[in-house]
Model the fold of this input.
Amino acid sequence: MTNRLTRWLKRLAANVRNRFRPTPQPRDRIPAPRPPLSYAEACKRLSPRRLKELAQTHYGWCPFDDIRLMGPGGLEKRVVRDTNGTFATVLPRGELIVFQNVKFFAFSEGDDDYFETKPRTMTEHLKYAATCAGEIQDAYGDWGFVLLKSLTGMEPSDAAAMFHTIQPTTFPLSTLKDELIYEAPQRMRVSNFASNPLSKTIAEDTLFEMLGGARRAFARAEKLIIEFDDLVGQQRISPFATGQGERWHGFAHAFEQLGLDLPAVLQ
Done:
């Protein structure tokens, strides 16, 4: 009886130890790393409804400065086509930017290895409107660039009419906020879409989005001026030196947009 009880207790103790012992994972159960999906492959996995949303016309607006898409290696972002069919190299400040699906030819993914013997092939790529708008939003959001989500899916002519009611012309940052806060609501009240509740709501939401962009652009301009003053104060920039390049352009543009006198070094 004692031996039987001893064996039973040993088995119980072994079962308890095994229960809390981590189970070894067989090597064949560890999933092999997979290469990241290409943009085209990722889009194929989306539902038709989601693809339809991505393909809708999107709209954006940047109140701080022109967005220059050309870099040292050429055109860095293919997001908007001009009226002549070529890709835009500049997205102008203060204007309504229309994003639609774009197609372009480029080397197939995986053809970047110059040591491969197989010939490199050019294939047609489709980039959805939402992706184009998102690229600019990610890169220039701190400039005050804003996606006008309330206008998404509207016909360009209707969206332009509503946008130009809110902002009939391009304003400098020094007067833009007052225009949007005080003048734009008055223009909206006497506009053609004021009597339509849906159009009125869309216009009000668009105005609210533009105000958010204007505040971010104003904050960026102030930040650049503070940075410039700090550099001059630390004598890292001589007040009588001449500068060139994008950094100087940003400093000068900030002074001009806020209606301040341009320092001699930036003239």
Observations:
- The helical segments are 2-20, 39-44, 48-55, 129-140, 156-166, 173-189, 197-233, 246-257.
